[in-house]
Amino acid sequence: MIIDIFQDTVCPWCRIGKANLLQALNMRGGERPQLRWRAFMLDPSVPKDGLPFMTTMKKKYGEQFSREGMLGRVVEAGTAAGLNFDFDKVEYMPNTRLSHRLIAIAPDGPKAELVEAIHRAYFEEGRNIGKQSVLLEIADGIGLDAGPLGARLDRGEGEAQVEEDFSMARRIGVSGVPFFIIGNKFALSGAQPPESFLKVFGRLEQQS
């Protein structure tokens, strides 16, 4: 089984949805499916150097946005999924293209760990994941060889894969993330609970 995961590295609900998916896979047991991490940018217009986080959020969501309200719900949902979010440390809204390129060129084995490490660096430590130096430090922190990865990023590697993911998202109508395509048959949108994934796994097994 293959699971395609469309996500953005500054999307807190993507992190929560990912954690719920992995929990469901642990509950299911058996052979692990192949996870394919697909790039999606919630706001491609963010400049390369990023924008101030709080100012950007208030401009985007207007009166709907508040640290206690919108971000408070994220913190609550994260706690339920065993995750920590510290938005007091988040100062930047980075352009995430480079982080997606790094994920694209990373070895398949530690890819899920890399995605979580990037999420953790941003949401818990407030690091600027739009910077290549920061991303390579994150990669090094999980045991990847940052030197060759940096050289590959300098050569533009990963760009074609990221653009392919964007094109696929447009083609199949992905308008928000997280978005999961399971077994090339079923789609789930949003930070679904583990039970939702387990139901889909069961339906796939019935059809096999």
From TrEMBL:
Pfam families from the UniProt entry:
DSBA
Domain (DSBA-like thioredoxin): residue spans on this chain: 3-199
Report which superkingdom the organism of origin falls in: Bacteria
Q: GO molecular function, one example?
A: oxidoreductase activity
Q: Could you identify this protein by its name? A: DsbA family oxidoreductase
